[in-house]
């Protein structure tokens, strides 16, 4: 996590939470909570800081969850007016979310009320998941109600909280095996007026497609009939991983059907790079046929692993629409900087151009 993310949870924030809780609950032990929640905070990472504050909050609040939940809900600030641009401020409520996830599971109704309130100020996508696992029928029924909620953040929770592969969260294994209950919710949201919700719907479908690629394309085909431009955007975004995999049906839905008669060559600048640097890949795409060619062109870089083997990573590049004899130059910068999700190693990195999903070897660059 970025340092600024981690240090957001500091003693100043702890005192702010204490002030909010004391304002609605005169018996809240403010000094004790601040001391306990602040002790040892600097040595912890982001999520551990939030959990540390949550545990101190739990010790300070009444033991009865329903009473504690009312206090927490009464202490919340105003709801979010916008869907973007809140920065770190909304992370104030991450300890509250963790509290519901850990301590509310035996108290379904008060926990649902608190999550409905929290998601309008931060997000309840993480704390709704334990309830989907313990109370799948009841929680899905509540989410079906919330799919028609007037608040955009509540509607987004319906799609975001049910993502089988939500980042930063444990996977919902039951929905990985059988995503039909999730698809029924997405059907209610596929024409939502807010892009904020539609983007979440697309990301959920993309998750489903990683485990059920045929079901993903079947769903997108069905949704494409009479689709508005907004729903067409969902379909394109939902199919992005399938397109990267070269799924022919997904490519056809995107308008890129069958092989394209294109010649592709590549140059690398520089052709030899050091770890931590970057290389610019320039593709020259030429239509060598007698017919117009429309194609999706991506780039697959075979990154060398620690054991000397390689594994491709696909980068989105562009689309081309070329008349006979025409050419187009496409460029992509590939970074060799160390990432938390990918380490780099020396060796020859093979590169393929992916034209409508078909791999065309175009050379390699060396990393030292």
**How far apart are the termini?**
28 Å
Task: Report the CATH superfamily of the largest domain.
Answer: ARM repeat domains
Query: In CATH, what is the class of the largest domain?
Result: Mainly Alpha
Low-pLDDT stretches are none
Number of strands: 8
Radius of gyration (Å): 25 Å
Report the structural category: alpha+beta
CATH architecture of the largest domain: Alpha Horseshoe
Give the helix proportion (percent range).
40-55%
State the shape.
globular
Organism: Archangium minus
Protein name: DNA alkylation repair protein
InterPro entries: ARM-type_fold, DNA_alkylation, Ig-like_fold
Pfam family, one: DNA_alkylation
Question: Mind explaining what this structure looks like?
Answer:
This is DNA alkylation repair protein. InterPro entries: ARM-type_fold, DNA_alkylation, Ig-like_fold. It holds the Pfam family DNA_alkylation. The chain is an alpha+beta fold and 368 residues long. The chain has two domains: 3-253, Serine Threonine Protein Phosphatase 5, Tetratricopeptide repeat, CATH 1.25.40; 262-367, Immunoglobulins (Immunoglobulin-like), CATH 2.60.40.10. The chain contains 17 helices and eight strands. The chain has helices at 3-7, 11-24, 30-38, 46-60, 65-75, 94-103, 108-118, 129-134, 136-146, 152-160, 173-177, 180-189, 195-211, 213-224, 229-238, 240-244, 248-253; strands at residues 262-269, 272-273, 278-287, 293-304, 310-322, 327-335, 347-355, 358-367. Strands 2-8-7-4-5 form a five-stranded mixed β-sheet, with no helix packed on it. Strands 1-3-6 form a three-stranded antiparallel β-sheet, with no helix packed on it. A hairpin with a 5-residue loop joins strand 4 (293-304) and strand 5. Helix 2 (11-24) crosses helix 5, helix 5 runs parallel beside helix 7 and helix 13 runs parallel beside helix 15 (229-238). The chain is globular and about 80 Å long. The model has no long low-confidence stretch (mean pLDDT 94).
């Amino acid at each position: 996590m970025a340092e600024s993310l981690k240090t957001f949870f500091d003693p100043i924030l702890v005192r702010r939470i204490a002030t909010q809780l004391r304002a609605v609950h005169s018996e809240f032990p403010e000094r004790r909570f601040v001391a306990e929640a602040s002790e040892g905070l600097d040595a912890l990472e982001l999520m551990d800081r939030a959990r540390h504050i949550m545990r101190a909050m739990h010790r300070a609040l009444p033991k009865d969850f329903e009473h504690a939940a009312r206090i927490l809900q009464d202490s919340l600030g105003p709801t979010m007016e916008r869907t973007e641009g809140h920065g770190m401020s909304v992370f104030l409520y991450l300890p509250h979310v963790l509290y519901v996830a850990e301590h509310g599971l035996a108290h379904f109704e008060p926990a649902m009320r608190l999550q409905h309130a929290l998601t309008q100020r931060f997000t309840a996508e993480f704390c709704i998941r334990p309830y989907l696992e313990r109370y799948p029928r009841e929680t899905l029924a509540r989410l079906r109600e919330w799919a028609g909620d007037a608040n955009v953040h509540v509607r987004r929770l319906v799609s975001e909280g049910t993502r089988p592969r939500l980042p930063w969260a444990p996977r919902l294994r039951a929905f990985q095996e059988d995503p039909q209950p999730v698809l029924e919710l997405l059907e209610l949201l596929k024409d939502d007026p807010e892009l904020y919700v539609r983007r979440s719907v697309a990301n959920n479908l993309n998750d489903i497609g990683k485990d059920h690629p045929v079901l993903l394309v079947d769903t997108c085909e069905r949704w494409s009939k009479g689709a508005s431009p907004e729903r067409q955007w969902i379909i394109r975004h939902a199919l992005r991983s399938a397109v990267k995999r070269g799924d022919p049906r997904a490519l056809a839905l995107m308008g890129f059907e069958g092989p394209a008669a294109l010649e592709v060559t590549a140059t690398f600048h520089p052709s030899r790079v050091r770890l931590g640097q970057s290389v610019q890949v320039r593709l020259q795409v030429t239509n060598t046929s007698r017919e117009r060619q429309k194609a999706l062109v991506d780039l697959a870089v075979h990154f060398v692993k620690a054991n000397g083997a390689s594994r491709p990573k696909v980068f989105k590049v562009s689309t081309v629409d070329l008349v006979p004899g025409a050419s187009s130059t496409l460029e992509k910068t590939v970074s060799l900087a160390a990432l938390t999700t990918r380490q780099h190693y020396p060796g020859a990195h093979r590169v393929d151009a992916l034209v409508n999903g078909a791999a065309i070897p175009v050379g390699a660059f060396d990393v030292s």
